[in-house]
UniProtKB/TrEMBL annotation:
Pfam family, one: Hydrolase
Source organism phylogeny: Eukaryota, Viridiplantae, Streptophyta, Embryophyta, Tracheophyta
NCBIfam families (alphabetical): HAD-SF-IA-v3 (TIGR01509), Pyr-5-nucltdase (TIGR01993)
InterPro entries: HAD-like_sf, HAD-SF_hydro_IA, HAD_sf, Pyr-5-nucltdase
Name of this protein: Pyrimidine 5-nucleotidase
Domain of life, per lineage: Eukaryota
Coiled-coil annotated residue ranges, if any: none
Length: 278
């Protein structure tokens, strides 16, 4: 006798996570120190006027997603490894402590989980290590994934096109392109989907940046804004903390439970119905 095994199809087959200020709270102080390191780099290594650097740093971040992408767009030549070493290599990672609650939540979901960060590989690895989450993710997409060394200077590589709008006019001013691929630009998402073989229409994306969330929504991703309970345009779910996953997204656990229950009942049915020949 033949039996058709039909499992309920879960809504999501992948959970995509940002790292900084998403897997740990903004209140940790790590991001604030990162900004201070960027400003120090711009002053000491690039000789940018100290009186202008804070405003410039913030503007480049707003226009290009990362200050590094903005610096490259405006022609600053720098070594990416040296930059990341200066910015992230001196961070007080001791601010981060193991998070057994988050670890338990992630392990309780047998759904593929992928990291998607603009930061470099070493920083992502150190953060996951400090939080005790090294074995919770199936893949990592980071700066090096999006910007392979053999492609960064390749003129055929898709670039981030940036349009800046003037408050007094509806016309846009086109800013210089950056060779750096990073969130929140569409090419970063498309590249991430290709690298990790992600179907955006079956993926739930967690990020603390409303700009990243809103752009990701346009690519087909379902979205979760972390660090705020306020829903905005492009936000499907809003969590004050990543620890609120189970309360805010019970359907993730319900779909897993249903799949397990159906699988178990079908195994029992097959075992009972299968004739035994002595």
């Amino acid at each position: 006798m033949e039996y058709e095994t039909q499992f309920p199809q879960p809504k999501y087959d992948c959970l995509l996570f940002d790292v900084d200020d998403t897997l740990y709270p903004l209140s940790s102080g790590l991001s604030a120190q990162c900004t201070r390191n960027i400003i120090e780099y711009m002053v000491n290594e690039l000789d940018i006027d100290e009186s202008k650097v804070k405003e410039m740093c913030a503007q480049l971040y707003r226009d290009y997603g990362t200050t590094l992408a903005g610096l490259r767009a405006f022609g600053y030549e720098l070594d990416y490894d040296d930059y990341h070493s200066f910015i992230h290599g001196r961070l007080p990672y001791e601010y981060l402590k193991p998070d057994p609650v988050l670890r338990s939540l992630l392990h309780s979901l047998p759904i593929r989980k992928v990291i998607f960060s603009n930061a470099n590989e070493a920083h992502v690895a150190e953060v996951l290590h400090r939080l005790g989450l090294e074995d919770c993710f199936d893949d990592v997409i980071c700066f090096e994934s999006l910007n392979p060394k053999n492609q960064i200077t390749n003129p055929s590589t898709p670039k981030s096109s940036v349009m800046k709008y003037d408050n007094d006019s509806e016309s846009g001013v086109v800013l210089p392109e950056s060779p750096i691929v990073c969130k929140p630009f569409d090419n970063a998402y498309q590249q991430a989907f290709k690298i990790a073989k992600i179907n955006p229409h079956k993926t739930l994306f967690f990020d603390d940046s409303i700009r990243n969330i809103q752009m990701s929504k346009l690519t087909g991703l379902s979205t979760v804004l972390v660090g705020s309970s306020q829903r905005k345009i492009g936000v499907d779910h809003a969590l004050e903390s990543i620890h609120n996953m189970r309360e805010a997204l019970p359907e993730l656990w319900e779909s897993v439970s249903k799949s397990l229950d159906v699988g178990l009942s079908q195994k029992i049915e097959v075992a009972v119905e299968t004739p035994v020949e002595a």
